[in-house]
Amino acid sequence: MKFASIDIGSNAVRLLFCNVYEKPNGETVFKKASLIRVPLRLGEDAFMLKRISDDKCDKMVKTMRAFKELIEVHEVLAFRACATSAMRESENGRELIERIKKEAGLEIEIVDGATEAEIIYSNHIEEMLNPKKAYLYIDVGGGSTELTVFDNNKIVASKSFNIGTIRILQNKVDKETWNQMQEWIKINTENHSPLMAIGSGGNINKLYNMTKKKEDRTISFRKLNELYGMLNSYNYEERIKLLDLNPDRADVIVPATEIFITVMKTADIERVLVPQIGMSDGIIHLLYENYKKQNKSQEKTKFWF
């Protein structure tokens, strides 16, 4: 079985193809087939101008046309496209959605922060966790940061904050918003310790790769601070040339590291687990679960009639 997901973020647009295998022992395996990432940076317009420019709208439509063609070629069982923070805040977001539907033949949902967090949670991250421990899930994007507290494999609290990498680069995050996030963290993690963090998003994945670790998939708070200092010691061009970072990663990785450090320091967390999953993976899980439900429903219908 193959499914596809489109994640329209504030920094980049991603198309993920994933094969799903059901083993005889009942285990379900999700294996990424391919990932296409286009750094459109819709947030640059959305957070500064409150609307997406004509140029970016044109590029978005072209990208969606290409994605639609690829989805048809891959012959997936189902696909879903979700747009987050940048499209939520753009005055012409709905207009662009209608244009994409008309010119590219793709239906796109603009999801709110709560739904975004639910989609990320659909990765069944709880299956990777120790049920006796508490965790703080941190998903950092270009426009927002989603925080979810887990304890005993259950969601205790979840909140989306308008603190993202593109917003920070544009000086669109004020001190009050930082304070609100830190206050929420203190209140909602107070009785859940010791805590471990779980990080998602392209930046934390890149930070993990920079550690060159092989023994486990974690980064210590101390190491994050070291990486933050190192990244800040280079300018944008040097991060590209000397650290081999992509141009669309070389700037956002610094504020992303700042967000992770702030959250972990506030919650008194020593390590962050980096399972390399995100919203596009969550969409795949939901598509598969929906597919299974539909099949079961059809089986029951056949049985009764």
Task: Describe what this molecule looks like in 3D.
- By secondary structure, the protein is α/β, with parallel strands linked by helices.
- Helices cover 48% and strands 23% of the residues.
- The chain has 13 helices and eleven strands.
- It has a six-stranded mixed sheet, with helices on both faces. A five-stranded mixed sheet has the order 3-2-1-4-5, with helices on both faces.
- The model is unreliable at 299-305 (pLDDT under 50).
Summarize model confidence as the mean pLDDT: 91
Rg value:
20 Å
Helix content: 40-55%
Strand order of the largest sheet: 8-7-6-9-11-10
Provide the low-confidence segments as ranges: 299-305
Strand pairing plus helix content: what structural class?
alpha/beta
Strand % is 15-25%
What are the secondary-structure elements, in order, as H or E? EEEHHEHHEHEEEHHEHEHHHHEH
Number of E strands: 11
Dominant shape: globular
Largest sheet: 6 strands, mixed
Q: How far do the termini sit from each other?
A: 27 Å
Determine the number of helices (DSSP H or I, runs of at least 4 residues): 13
Primary descriptors:
305 residues, alpha/beta
How would you summarize what this structure contains?
This protein has 13 helices and eleven strands.
